[in-house]
Write a structure and sequence with these properties.
Layout lengths: L1 H5 L3 H40 L2 H35 L1 H35 L6 H30 L4 E4 L2 E4 L2 H5 L2 H31 L5 H28 L6 H4 L2 H14 L8 H27 L3 H6 L1 H10 L2 H15 L4 E3 L3 E2 H4 L6 H32 L24
Antiparallel strand pairs: 1-2, 3-4
């Protein structure tokens, strides 16, 4: 295996490495975005109504959210190293534009989000309940702000706007065009509802697992099941609407037809011969994405029928199995959509501006990339496995095993000692 990798094309290795790490990281992001929103809404209900069951739900689902967030942060930090390791050409030519939204994401969004999340975790029962509620909403909103800035950067790769080339280097000259790029805005709402869809299926699947086992926490998981199903039903259509709206801004070489032929001719005249049409893998990703979305729509339709009948949510064992089996569906759809969006842009790193091969770090051979490829792949596999294990372990424990916000056990008082002489 190592010998095969050592002889592989460095460009192919670098692309596959980034595909594996970016794709894995995005799986964490989607659940984090959606689950943060559901936890914030549930805590709002608990604070406003004083509902004890909703307060317990916040602790249980909030604990799963924190686990996913913590491991996901590590994958995001590690993934960033690849820009310097393998893609210095991207920073050299377009760093002044591409790096701006990423810097905003780190400084404005990520630090605020992580700081307020720490206050939310350790401020339980120490802060006023309204202050504590405000903290989780700040965490949620900054999480979406962070996602927006990342998608601004990615949207610029798809449809570069608001810049000029000066001596072969991209210079930002229109911040408004960069931030309001339709490929970023539509992708943001697509991801927003995709995250909610992921969290909805996750919450319904975990609830179905406990109801299938005839848990004693029937009311807790009945309510959780209803929240999860309602989220799925609300999110499933906006996901495809905002996804479909992006096609009007898709690259001509990805959509095909006369526009694709004209774009290929233009690129050939300007940059020389190359395979400018979207690879077959992009079409496969699109087909898988649409197919899985149809499956999710079918599950949502079943949920819509079952939703008014509370007894079916509790007693329907086949329905519980269906919801457990449906948990991976949004993940598969997201990965397939990501493949369609990113692979379909090839051979461009920045569409019509910088080719992927020119973005590769100069002098990087297959040996160096093989070492980083193996190291990154093993690390991300371990992180993904640890996250899945932790989520399964704490989800299986149920609300009684939720340690988030629990007061530490009181230490026994020291015995009074008689003075000795």
């Amino acid at each position: 295996m190592e010998r095969v990798l050592m002889g592989a094309d460095p460009l192919v290795l670098a692309r596959v490495q980034f595909a594996l790490t970016a794709g894995t990281h995005f799986l964490f992001v989607a659940l984090t975005l959606g689950l943060a929103t559901l936890v914030a809404l549930t805590q709002t209900r608990a604070v406003v109504s004083g509902s004890a069951v909703h307060a317990r739900m916040v602790r249980f689902w909030g604990q799963l959210y924190v686990i996913n967030y913590a491991v996901g942060i590590v994958t995001g930090l590690v993934m960033e190293f690849q820009f310097g390791l393998n893609w210095s050409g991207l920073s050299r030519v377009t760093g002044n534009v591409f790096g701006a939204p990423l810097a905003l994401e780190t400084i404005v969004a990520f630090f605020v989000e992580s700081t307020f999340l720490g206050l939310w975790i350790f401020g339980w029962d120490r802060l006023n309940r309204w202050v504590h509620l405000a903290l989780i909403w700040v965490v949620t909103l900054t999480a979406y702000l962070s996602a927006y800035f990342v998608l601004v950067a990615n949207g610029w790769l798809q449809r570069p706007v608001g810049f000029v080339m000066v001596d072969g280097v991209a210079r930002l000259d229109d911040v408004g065009a960069l931030l309001a790029n339709p490929t970023a805005l539509l992708a943001f709402f697509h991801v927003l509802f995709g995250g909610l869809l992921t969290a909805g299926f996750f919450m319904a699947g975990v609830s179905g697992f406990h109801l299938l086992r005839r848990t004693s926490e029937v009311e807790f998981f009945r309510r959780s099941m209803r929240i999860g199903l309602l989220t799925v039903m609300v999110s499933v259509m906006p996901v495809v609407v905002f996804g479909g709206m992006q096609f009007q801004y898709a690259q001509p070489t990805k959509t095909g037809g006369h526009e694709a032929a004209a774009a290929v001719a233009d690129f050939t005249a300007r940059f020389g011969p190359d395979d400018y049409r979207a690879p077959v893998l992009a079409g496969v990703g699109e087909a898988v994405m649409v197919t899985v979305w149809l499956l999710m729509l079918l599950v949502a339709a079943v949920a819509l029928v079952k939703f008014p009948f509370g007894r079916w949510l509790v007693r329907g064992r086949v329905f519980h199995v269906l919801m457990i089996a449906a948990v991976p569906l949004p993940y598969v759809a997201m990965l397939a959509g990501w493949v369609f969006r990113e692979v379909g842009r090839q051979p461009w790193m920045v569409y019509g501006v910088l080719k992927t091969r020119d973005a590769l770090s100069p002098g990087v051979g297959s040996g160096a990339i093989t070492v980083s490829f193996v190291a990154f792949s093993v690390l991300f596999a371990v992180l993904f496995g640890v996250n899945a294990w932790l989520l399964a372990r704490f989800a299986r424990r149920g609300p009684e095993g939720a340690g988030l916000g629990a007061s530490p056990p009181a230490e026994p008082a020291a015995p009074l000692m008689s003075p000795t002489f």
